[in-house]
């Protein structure tokens, strides 16, 4: 497959919006950037990159940020190292996705169905790993986003409660997501730019808050480079959950399809790897670093710590003192759920189409309905998130993510499928095995917890 | 050379899947043993032997599964 042969090159339907001449121009620009060296080539890579930024924006959602806030408030700077370890361990599998896209030249779920069966591909990867994640986790994003709009309005001296501001939230996120993949209108570029600027806004706003709060650099550096965990089962739970939950099936497959939608091929693989390092890894680590430090410098060791993102934000804002810093925090924080909601909409449409083997067509009603399904999360403006559903989905994810990881490892090491483009690196295989083993541990501790074997 | 030969062996079919696939299952079992041993160690102070078997097994699986596929024909 990867060796080409006489077969026509694979073209993902969403890539039809990208003219062949544009792909050739990109290939030339990348060749020039390669000749100029990594540092001088960065502007070209950042300009041409995109799927990695979408991935970072998707992953940096209400759940991840709540974990970071809690980590800072409970443990200070001491768990900062977990974030780069978590993101770093995920990079190996994402590099495999880049290889499947750029050199494999196939639709990963279609090929997985062919090789490992429809249940693993269409049910565990597409429906459980992508669609349920998109549908269920958008409730949390809408709840947080609408709460923040209400808080920003209050700080500005007027009232705009969640019950009334949700249409604004749903409208903006739906509009950006619906433009994706449209030829002519530049929808894909708009969405990617929106994600890039939102990530930049998060970093600038949280950095501004940190300037106000101050940072204990020796403690922060120690926390970043010297591993520390709370004692006992709690520490192991924290490590497994943080590292395995940061980047999962949804992120892997999302990167594959969004890179396919850009028409990326063999000559884009270097760009794909830069996109993963500069667009995914760096923003993920930097945003989490800033959040942990802000909370370590304010709420750490302050007694009762709130448990939800909205309550944590409410507790933090008065501690920031200056009005400017308060606004900066809330605006940076608002970018978190907004970008994740957009990413979840895209994930839903891609996942449903992959699950049923439908051809994605962004102009069809089917695509639009699939894309907008997660927006049922608008109900979170009135009601609490569906806890039972979240527990069921989290259980399904815990128990199945690792099997999907096994399947992708097998595909990367399949000589018949990948030909000369298969993994030829022990380090790459070990990196993937590390993430697969972490996902195994999530599944095992989930079962042990149910059996009562995993309690202090 | 030895590495490529090992890669060839990992790609051989054994029943419904390749040897590589079976090793992933063995790795999973070893992970479970290691975590079970660890939980016993933390809760009751016992379980060291199970933990060691699990960790050594996991490391052995890593060493084997890290091997890339060989170049030869199946």
Secondary structure layout:
The complex is a heterodimer of chains A (456) and B (74).
Chain A: H1 20-36, H2 38-48, H3 51-59, H4 62-75, H5 81-104, H6 108-116, H7 118-155, H8 162-178, H9 187-213, H10 217-225, H11 232-246, H12 249-261, H13 269-296, H14 309-316, H15 323-356, H16 365-372, H17 387-412, H18 415-418, H19 426-451
Chain B: H1 2-10, E1 13-14, E2 17-18, H2 19-43, H3 48-65
Antiparallel strand pairs in B: 1-2
Helix pairs in contact in B: 2-3
Describe this entry's structure for a reader:
The complex is a heterodimer of chains A (456) and B (74). Chain A is mainly α. Chain A has 19 helices and no strands. The radius of gyration of chain A is 21 Å and the shape is globular. Chain B has a two-stranded antiparallel sheet with strand order 1-2. Chain B has 74 residues and is mainly α. The model of chain B has no long low-confidence stretch (mean pLDDT 87). The two termini of chain B are 16 Å apart. In chain B, helix 2 packs antiparallel against helix 3 (48-65). Helices cover 70% and strands 5% of the residues of chain B. Classes of the chains: A mainly alpha (456), B mainly alpha (74).
Note the total helix count of chain A.
19
| Average pLDDT metric of chain B | 87
In N-to-C order, the SSE pattern of chain B is HEEHH
**Helix fraction bin of chain B:** over 70%
Q: Could you describe the largest sheet of chain B, including whether it forms a barrel?
A: 2 strands, antiparallel
Strand content of chain A: under 5%
The structure class of chain B reads mainly alpha
Distance between the termini of chain A: 50 Å
